[in-house]
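re: ur question from yesterday

yeah so i grabbed the chain u mentioned. its 134 aa long if i counted rite. heres the sequnce exactly as i have it in my notes:
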Amino acid sequence: MAGRSAARVERETKNEKRAASRESRAASPEPRAPRSEPSATSLDRIIHERMRLAIVSALAVNDSLTFNDLKALLETTDGNLSVHARKLEDAKYIAVDKSFEGRMPKTQYRLTAAGRRAFEKYIAHMESLIKAVR
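ran it thru and got these structure tokens back, copy pasting raw so excuse formatting
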């Protein structure tokens, strides 16, 4: 009985020390050195995907484009364009205007101010990554 008690006390002491160590690490994290080089992991994941980057790039050089214009320009399917355009719309990077010409639906896309800023930031980040590698 006494042997078990001593072992139990020893385990409890070790557990308390581990808990105290975890708490002290959580309370005072070690300072990290500032990054001098850009990180590829900090790229804007919304824009970084190939089709979304193509959409934003096309809209950056055009005031607006219709769904059919974008589809033809990017050589993609209706479904693929719709899914990626919705992601960009949800992020407020593009604005979508839907209307009708006669009985035909017409969807018009344009880059928002937030989308333009995000795109310019993305391009600057990519340029700095390229410089860092060279």
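noticed a couple things. The CA atoms of residues 52 and 83 lie 10 Å apart. also The radius of gyration is 27 Å.
anyway ttyl
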